[in-house]
Amino acid sequence: MGNRLMDTIYMTAASILHSCLWYDHVELYVDQIGYDFLSDLPCDVTLVDFDKNAELWMKPKLYAIQDQHQPFVHIDNDIFLKKNIVFEFDRVLVERKDIGFHNYKELVLFFDDYSQQLKFWNNELKYAWGCGVLGFNDLEVRDDFVKCFNELEDILTTHKEEFKDFKNSRDQNGWYLEPGLLLEQYNLASLLAVQRIEPSVLIQGEAHDEQSSYANELGYAHLFGASKYHPKNVKKIKELLKEKFFAEYKKIEEKMAFAEPTLF
Predict the structure, then answer these.
(1) Residue 55 has what pLDDT?
(2) What is the value of pTM for the model shown?
(3) Which residues contact 36 (CB under 8 A, 6 or more apart)?
(4) Of 23, 118, 152, 222, which is most buried by a Cβ count within 10 Å?
């Protein structure tokens, strides 16, 4: 989608600032570029040297998840909490049930050739757990999730040429194979199924319309995929920041003005 750094900075600021309205302890994990723009936000800002891997775009989340020493909820930076949502759950909290198996079935086919020895692997699921919101009260399950992610990433790294050939050989019907979806969301579903853990689900329903209606009532908005960079949404986020969080918006604007042109 091109360089969307500026849009991402504004979006992240809006997401964080909404969270800061409702919760006492908010922590943002960023790389150096993000830190340069967002370090003045009214929360803890932790600088981490993330791997730069566009194919595994969700991997930085693993840094934040591994770094926790007590029960926590992780929220992606394209999520906006318009109300104080009480995150009550037993062992694991997920955002929603993702029944879009067409996003996973080709990936499951590829990984199945290399994952039979993995105790957590289950190739029969027809769903995954959405991880836009992901919480762990049971840190042992968190550790298992991270371990499984790393094992699947090792498979992808070891067999990167085979995966490249696999992608080129598939009739994708317009769908782009995103291994990150399997490493994160299908991985979690497989692990919890094998461990017979039924997670708490924040957004109820299975059909997209049903989930969207429930989320709206809850005061929850998630800009999925490329929708976050639709001109309408980019404009709305910037206007929201300016109207609701003017001081923080102004600081970011000033930093943008002095940033190196190569960043954008």
Answers:
(1) 81
(2) 0.92
(3) 255, 259
(4) 152
